[in-house]
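Help needed: design a sequence for this.
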């Protein structure tokens, strides 16, 4: 099973001036991210505006980015939704497109029970050979995947870990303590990365790594080599940037920031719109305080 890495970037989807997916720019961004600290990429996740992408757009992104990346890093397909049957079919197609793993979000809108969540994820995982990563983000899905259900799902062989964006450190601790050996917990919030590592977490699926990937990688390297003070200093330094990137709905601040520094990714698709001038000014001012790791050439 391919090692997917500690630092995964939840990659934005670039659009051209006409609002169409810019596949060439997506490939350039994917390679730039792998050259600035990322071990792998999540394609068509929340940050990739997955609800606005068609099935055909998602599959083309999976295939073209994997072709461009090759063995330089893992490509993880955001193939989950609130529909079990459609999620399973898209995950099967993503597997045929050659991706290395899939990310499966907690079903949103229809508010399933914990048993429904268990059956949903188990059905998808058992229908493919891909490594599957759960994604718990109750601020967006309303329903939260409980620690107990996550632990139960960790017994499914090809469910390899979870992206935990609940912000509930007690829940995350219970998952780390009780899941099967080798089950991975990635932080799903950049601001929670160091606390989750301290609990025994593995890494982060990051938004801020678009801009400061090497610095996030360095912070984690410091932590795992026992340089706790250095790791904490870096983490604290990055927090104002992380806060600015979530001053409005993700990924609108990030896309604004990328465009501002000179890596064009286009505007978000409706119903998302660009940040208002007040938010944009905060993003611009915050960026002045940071070295940007993303190669722009």
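Sure. Designed sequence:
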């Amino acid at each position: 099973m391919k090692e997917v890495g500690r630092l995964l970037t939840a990659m934005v989807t670039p659009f051209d001036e006409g609002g169409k997916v810019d596949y060439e720019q997506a490939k350039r961004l994917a390679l730039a991210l792998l050259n600035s600290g990322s071990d792998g990429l999540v394609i068509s996740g929340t940050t990739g505006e997955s609800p606005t992408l068609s099935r055909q757009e998602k599959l083309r992104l999976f295939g073209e980015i994997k072709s461009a990346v090759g063995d330089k890093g893992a490509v993880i397909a955001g193939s989950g939704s609130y529909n079990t049957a459609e999620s399973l079919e898209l995950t099967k197609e993503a597997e045929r497109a050659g991706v290395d793993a899939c990310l499966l979000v907690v079903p949103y809108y229809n508010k399933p029970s914990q048993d429904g969540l268990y059956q949903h994820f188990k059905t998808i995982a058992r229908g493919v050979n891909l490594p599957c990563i759960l994604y718990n983000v109750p601020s967006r899905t309303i329903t939260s995947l409980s620690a107990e259900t996550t632990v139960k799902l960790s017994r499914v062989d090809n469910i390899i870990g979870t992206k935990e964006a609940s912000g509930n450190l007690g829940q995350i601790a219970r998952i780390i303590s009780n899941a099967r050996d080798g089950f991975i917990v990635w932080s799903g919030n950049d601001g929670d990365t160091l606390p989750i590592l301290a609990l025994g977490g593995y890494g982060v699926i990051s938004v801020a790594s678009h801009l400061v990937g090497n610095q996030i990688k360095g912070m984690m390297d410091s932590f795992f080599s026992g340089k706790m003070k250095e790791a904490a200093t870096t983490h604290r330094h990055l927090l104002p940037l992380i806060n600015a990137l979530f001053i409005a709905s993700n990924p609108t601040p990030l896309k604004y920031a990328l465009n501002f520094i000179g890596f064009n990714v286009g505007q978000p698709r409706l119903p998302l719109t660009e940040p208002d001038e007040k938010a944009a000014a905060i993003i611009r001012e915050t960026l002045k305080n940071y070295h940007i790791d993303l190669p722009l050439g």
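The beta strands are 7-10, 40-43, 74-78, 101-105, 132-136, 159-164, 184-187, 203-206.
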